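Journal club prep — side note

Before the paper discussion, L.F. wants everyone to see what a predicted structure for a comparable chain looks like in token form. Sequence:
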Amino acid sequence: MTAEERQILQLLAKEWNLKGPPGILDVSDVVAALPLAPSDTLAALKHLFEKGLTDMNSLKTSVFLTPEGYAAAE
């Protein structure tokens, strides 16, 4: 797992812990919250989705953790 992917998982896990599962955030909020280039953040989000650690709403505007993603963030 890359450092970028780990940062995203930790951010979503923090949201999970504060607001409850599934730790949903707008993709734009994830990009804004992390000190990464937007292209790096989006690439990491794609990899996490492909690995089944995150999922997205049907419009691809929000991202959230799967239970496996939450476990990986711990």
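L.F.'s comment for the group: The helical segments are 3-19, 27-33, 38-50, 67-73. Keep this in mind when we get to the figures.
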